[in-house]
Every structure is written in structure tokens, then in C-alpha cells.
Specification:
The chain folds into 3 domains: 85 residues, Winged helix-like DNA-binding domain superfamily/Winged helix DNA-binding domain (Arc Repressor Mutant, subunit A, Orthogonal Bundle); 99 residues, Periplasmic binding protein-like II (D-Maltodextrin-Binding Protein, domain 2); 101 residues, D-Maltodextrin-Binding Protein, domain 2 (3-Layer(aba) Sandwich). Helices cover 45% and strands 23% of the residues. Helix 9 links the parallel strand 5 and strand 6. The chain is rod-shaped and about 100 Å long.
């Protein structure tokens, strides 16, 4: 069935006049008449009452008009979806993620996304979750992976990661053989920590402030490999996710008691209109991280 003729037919049904319809769609009236005649021939039904002044459409024409409106609406949705897919071929995403998450959780995920959408550019911004939240609110980022336990009213969230924070230390450390460790005992040790603004640091800082404990911080660094080297050589112990130490023979991780959860969500500003590229990125992260983590 010719969709253009259906469109002409629907316009005619709505306007009720060949002359006005031809003017609106920008064709000559004889051409419109021929198109409608061809449609009638195509469907094998009489659609127009040419001798009846009060009713332009026949009963069959009324039925076809209702069906045609639904069909053309669906065709419009398909065209929009296809246009969205075309737009996914290019675009840019400003994505904020911490160094630890970017290094250990995203290399494979980002590679797979780039293979699927090679022309979409992703600009990675490395900051702590507090700084990333502020950048989202200021419109400097499209998406960011930030803490999901405390939600801001101006942001939308979809939870991606929920893991346990552990104490990371050398296998030779006196606490290495313990089954669990309390924050109180942890805070009595020499420490190697992230800078302020990173959730793994804030857990310790908040506890120390509440308990009025003075921390013995030997080094502050966001460089993961440097941090592991310092911990491995007993400069201090740290907070981390157990995954980071999986392949470290000289290091171990001890769960906290009570346990400390690490919740991260993908967030974006409510008033910010997401691009098709960003929507595809969100869908990709949700599907792949739920499987891999």
C-alpha cells in the first residue's frame, strides 16, 4: 500500500475538500484526485462519496481513515527511531568517573561501547564523587558515576555498582590474618588514603571526625599503583574494593565489621536533555556492568 496516497487520503478526510487539501499538501488538484483514485483501486473499495455533499467519506472510507491514522502514526515512530540510530553514529559524551573506577571497571566496558559506536567521542573527567556531582550540577558533565546513597534533588540516578569497602594491607601486616577489622582499629594504623572528596576517603574522615580521632596519614594520593606500592611496602594501610587486590600476591583485603557498602550510581542533571549518544551509553553501562560486577 502506498503510504503517500494514505497521507493524502487522511489530509482529505480531515479537510473535507479536494481544493483545500491540494493547496495544503502542495500539489495540483487533478494530481490529488488521481492519487485518491489509485488508492481506491489499490484497496478495491470506494472511499469517496463524489455525489454526496454532506459526507465526503463512504462507510468504508471512514474505516480506512481510522486505520490509516494509526498506521501513519506507527510509521512516524519508526522513522524517529531510525533517525535516532543514525544520530548515534556520532556525538560526544562528557563522562565523569574516579580514577579507581575508570582503571578497574571501565576499560572493557568503554572498549565495547567504542566498538559498537566508533564515532561517538567520550571525554573522561577524573575527579572524586563530590567534585563530579558539583560538575554535573554546573552543567560541565553529561553523565557521571557518583555516590548513590545520598541523592541530590536536581539529579536523576540509576544504580550501577554496590560493593563492599575493605581494608587493604600488606600480607605481612599484623592485621592481615584477621577475619574482620573495625573502623576504630583501622584508624589507629598508619594510613595511605585518597584525597578528600573521594568516597573511600570520606568513610574514614567522617568516622574520625565523629569519634574525634586524629588520623596518622602517611600519604595522600589518587594514583592507584602508587597507593598499592606504598601499602605493599608497609607504609600504611588503605581502604579499597577487594577487586583491586585480586592479583596482588603480597597484599590482602580484610572486611570491615560492621561492613561498609559502596554504592555508585550513574547520574545526570534533571534539566539537562540527554543526547541519543548519552542514552545509548546509559543503556550500555546498565547492561554490561550488571553482568561484569
Amino acid at each position: 500500500m502506498n503510504l503517500k496516497r494514505l497521507e493524502y487520503f487522511c489530509q482529505l478526510a480531515q479537510l473535507g475538500n479536494f481544493t483545500r487539501t491540494a493547496e495544503k499538501i502542495g500539489i495540483a488538484q487533478p494530481a490529488l484526485t488521481i492519487a485518491i483514485q489509485k488508492l481506491e483501486h489499490e484497496v478495491g473499495l470506494k472511499l469517496i462519496n463524489r455525489a454526496e455533499k454532506n459526507a465526503l467519506l463512504t462507510a468504508e472510507g471512514e474505516v480506512l481513515y481510522k486505520l490509516a491514522i494509526e498506521l501513519l502514526s506507527q510509521v512516524g515512530q519508526v522513522e524517529l527511531a531510525l533517525e535516532d540510530l543514525k544520530n548515534l553514529e556520532q556525538g560526544a559524551i562528557r563522562f565523569g568517573v574516579s580514577a579507581m573506577m575508570g582503571s578497574y571497571y571501565f576499560p572493557t566496558v568503554l572498549t565495547e561501547f567504542k566498538q559498537q559506536y566508533p564515532k561517538i567521542k567520550i571525554q573522561l573527567i577524573d575527579q572524586g564523587t563530590a567534585a563530579l556531582e558539583k560538575m554535573l550540577l554546573n552543567g560541565e558533565l553529561d553523565l557521571a558515576l557518583i555516590r548513590g546513597d545520598i541523592e541530590h534533588s536536581q539529579l536523576r540516578y540509576t544504580q550501577l555498582i554496590n560493593q563492599e569497602i575493605v581494608a587493604g594491607m600488606s600480607s605481612l601486616h599484623p592485621l592481615a590474618k584477621a577475619n574482620t577489622v573495625s573502623l576504630a582499629k583501622f584508624c589507629q594504623q598508619p594510613l595511605v588514603l585518597f584525597h578528600q572528596g573521594y568516597f573511600l576517603r570520606e568513610v574514614v574522615s567522617q568516622y574520625a571526625k565523629q569519634q574525634q580521632v586524629e588520623l596518622d596519614i602517611r600519604m595522600e594520593t589518587n594514583l592507584i599503583e602508587l597507593q598499592k606500592s606504598l601499602v605493599r611496602n608497609n607504609v600504611g594501610i588503605t581502604t579499597c574494593l577487594s577487586r583491586i587486590l585480586q592479583n596482588e600476591a603480597q597484599m590482602t583485603s580484610i572486611p570491615f565489621e560492621p561492613n561498609i557498602e559502596f554504592k555508585l550510581s550513574l547520574a545526570w542533571k534533571k534539566s539537562h536533555s540527554l543526547s541519543n549518544a548519552s542514552k545509548a551509553f546509559i543503556k550500555h553501562l546498565k547492561s554490561t556492568l550488571e553482568i561484569k560486577i
